[in-house]
Amino acid sequence: MPKDSTTSFMECFNELEDPRMDRRKLYPLKEILLTVICATICGAESWRDFVLFGKEKLDYLRNFYAYQNGIPCKNTFARVFAALNPESFKKCFIHWMQALQTALKEVIAIDGKSLRRSFDTASDQSPIHMVSAFATAARLVLGQEKTSEKSNEITAIPKLLKLLDIQGCIISIDAMGAQKAIAEQIREQGGDYVLSLKGNQSTLHRDIQLFLDTEIEKTNSPYITDVSEAIGKEHGRIESRRCFVSDHIDWLEQKPLWKDLKTVAVIEETRNIKGKISLERRYFISSLPPEAQTIAHAVRSHWAVENSLHWVLDMTFREDESRIRCRHAPENMSMIRHIALNMLRNAQKKFKDVSIKGLRKKAGWGNATLDLILMANF
């Protein structure tokens, strides 16, 4: 992204309040934050890693700040991130991302992920669950909201949406978020929705399933408004995806309850794996016009969040293996990983055919690469 189109990263975090008492601030918060972000970019995963990185890269870090007292111990890193207010930290993160959002008129996938090892048996703390907003084309995390359990995504999604500028965007959410209030909020904020249906909206799901299944079996049904098809072949299997959409839904009793509901759709996926054929259908409601290709793209983009975000966090950043669990530290470190991933993605286009994992190694091995990553965001 061009330098003049993004707000300086550190400026966005200048207002972040240090939770420590004044007499104990031997290590300024901005120095701690910069150390942890740079270390995470370069592959660090624990408090001890941050200390090792900071001591090894102290001369480099002093190009940005004084580091008069050097690098703090691992307990200081742990205490700061445990005490740091995650709501304030999140607002700073959103502030940083707002400059990007004006250019991200695309599909934003809202999806949740549990941090499996963030539980603490001693304090009876369950693993935390993070709901993230992910710009699928740019592959950037726009924001996150913590819940105590997966079932609480319903309350977390409205809070997350309220923080975002979704004017002109398509918001895709899985069946957990298929709620009338959420659909209404998306429309009031100027976005469109594509919502998956399952058992949580059993009557609506059953009615739409019966209608679409009946109509797509007919030849040239007048009630199927548009159809798109895509065929792919990879890893020894052939996949065919057909999207059928209809705007003939005046018969649907629940239509007035869903804000600006215009279209119902089904994605039919047929797989041929070594001659064994399977078929699966998924059903959706949308405020979009009955354009099969647009809706199919939104659904496909939402599925990609598993590979482009969750898989990268688990396999490259080892998020599921993290045992950071004290107070606010798991949520704050999840934010740090999102920041590092966004920075890497923002700079990745400067490095031809280099994966995120490879770019992290390259940044750790050479200050010139780390410079390019930071300068693309600072």
Question: Secondary-structure map with pairings?
Answer:
Blueprint: H1 9-12, H2 29-41, H3 47-56, H4 58-61, H5 74-83, H6 86-101, E1 107-114, E2 129-135, E3 140-147, H7 153-163, E4 170-173, H8 180-188, E5 192-197, H9 202-216, E6 226-234, E7 237-246, E8 263-273, E9 276-286, H10 292-303, H11 305-315, H12 329-348, H13 356-365, H14 367-375
Parallel strand pairs: 1-4, 4-5
Antiparallel strand pairs: 1-2, 2-3, 5-9, 6-7, 7-8, 8-9
Tell me what the structure shows.
This protein has 378 residues and is α+β, with helices and mostly antiparallel strands. The protein has two domains: 3-86 and 329-375, no CATH class; 104-310, no CATH class. 41% of the residues lie in helices and 20% in strands. It is built from 14 helices and nine strands. It has a nine-stranded mixed sheet, with helices on both faces. Strand 8 (263-273) and strand 9 (276-286) form a beta hairpin. The chain is elongated and about 75 Å long. It starts with 8 loop residues before the first helix and ends with a helix.
